[in-house]
Amino acid sequence: MLITSTTARLLALALALTAATAAQAGSALRVVRDPVTGELRGPTAAEAAAFAKAEAQLRASSRAKAPAKSGPTEIRYADGTVETKLTEDDMMFSVVSEDAEGKLNFDCLPAEQARKFVQAKAPASNTKAKASHAH
């Protein structure tokens, strides 16, 4: 496929627009009402930091208040449907590590063990570790 300079420029423009849109998407998910004008707008850096801090405190508080779990909760409906409420703690994660010889080792670990595995392996040595999708 022959790429002309015009095509290359169009591709570069499309990539730049996509990157700019992706960068704005995170802030576009939250709006605040300007106290002076009353208009809706994206949060300032200070407002975004305050939101992040409040969310972190709320997550920590809800974890501390959560009762000890005995397992997933089942909800049975009249039509026979069974719904199971799961959290990240109920999920298993695929974890792949590479040993010194370049051999890949695959493991399925609970969320907390996968998190510890990745934190222990990734920065400490040449061993590469990555947590993958939940399944």
From TrEMBL:
The signal peptide annotation in the UniProt record is: 1-25
Keywords on this record? Signal
Q: Which NCBIfam families match?
A: post-PEP-CTERM_1
What is the protein named? Uncharacterized protein
